[in-house]
Write a structure and sequence with these properties.
The complex is a heterodimer of chains A (79) and B (137). Chain A has a single domain, classed as Beta-grasp domain (Ubiquitin-like (UB roll), Roll), CATH 3.10.20.30. In chain A, a hairpin with a 2-residue loop joins strand 3 and strand 4. Chain A is α+β, with helices and mostly antiparallel strands and 79 residues long. Chain A is 24% helix and 28% strand. Chain B has 137 residues and is of the alpha+beta class. Chain B has a single domain, classed as Molybdopterin biosynthesis MoaE subunit (Aldehyde Oxidoreductase, domain 3). In chain B, the strands form two sheets. In chain B, strands 3, 4, 6, 8 and 9 form a five-stranded antiparallel sheet that branches. In chain B, strands 1-5-7-2 form a four-stranded mixed sheet. In chain B, helix 2 runs antiparallel to helix 3. Chain B is elongated, with a radius of gyration of 15 Å. Classes of the chains: A alpha+beta (79), B alpha+beta (137). Chains A and B meet through helix 1 of A and strand 4, helix 2, helix 3 and strand 8 of B.
Chain lengths: 79, 137
């Protein structure tokens, strides 16, 4: 399965890119975050991160499908 | 019509204020967030804001919808900057109008707090010593 990931803020800095398309065996965002955290040495624990799939906030156990756009959101700092 | 916007150009507060006008409103409250030259004892020289656009739009709109219902507002608007900002520039503008001032003050405060808590926007501070860092409170 292939998913598209968008990275923002410190996660983009760590990953050295703002997006990637990734072949993965992860079936949900929880496993995918563990995988990309290892790949890019992300320091943020998952309990500090929110996840969006295809532009909407969702939960960590949601099933992923081929072609999904996944975004892991670090703690926000607008304003 | 959307009431929350991201903008990569300077915010026109005067033009936004006009959109709050309503014959039934007894007052409006606006808030401007400005780029400040220091944070936690460090000298800040400029900021970059990054946003996840589609979700920021939806989450910002949801906050304004919730505020209108919760406080009985006549109008509510918010614009947040993206991109590179200098010291003193307006980073965010919130404006509401309501029949009475209590609702307007409370709603304006509630909206900026919710925007800071929920909307996927990130601030990168550049410091006088050349370092920079994304804030993840």
């Amino acid at each position: 399965m292939k998913v598209k990931l968008l990275y923002f803020a410190s996660l983009a800095d760590r990953a050295g890119r703002s997006e990637e398309t990734r072949e993965t065996a992860a079936t949900n965002p929880r496993d995918l975050y563990a995988e990309v955290s290892r790949a890019h040495a992300f320091a943020l624990a998952p309990d500090r991160v929110r996840v969006a799939v295809n532009g909407a906030l969702t939960d960590w156990e949601r099933a992923l499908a081929d072609g999904d756009e996944v975004v892991f959101l670090p703690p926000v700092s607008g304003g | 019509m959307r009431h929350f916007h991201l903008s990569d150009t300077p915010i026109d507060a005067a033009a936004l204020r006009i959109t709050l006008e309503d014959p039934a409103a007894g007052g409006c409250v606006t808030f401007e967030g400005w780029v400040r030259d220091h944070n936690e004892a460090r000298h800040v020289t400029r900021l970059d804001y990054q946003a996840y656009g589609p979700l920021a739009d939806d989450e910002g709109e949801a906050i304004l919808d919730e505020a209108r219902a919760k406080f009985g507002l006549r109008a509510a608007r918010c614009v947040h900057r993206t991109g590179a900002l200098s010291i003193g520039e307006m980073a965010v503008w919130v404006g509401v109008s309501a029949d009475h001032r209590d609702a307007a003050f409370a709603a304006c405060r509630w909206i900026i707090d919710e925007v800071k808590r929920r909307v996927p926007i990130w601030k990168n501070e550049h410091y006088a010593d050349g370092e920079s860092g994304w804030l993840h409170p």
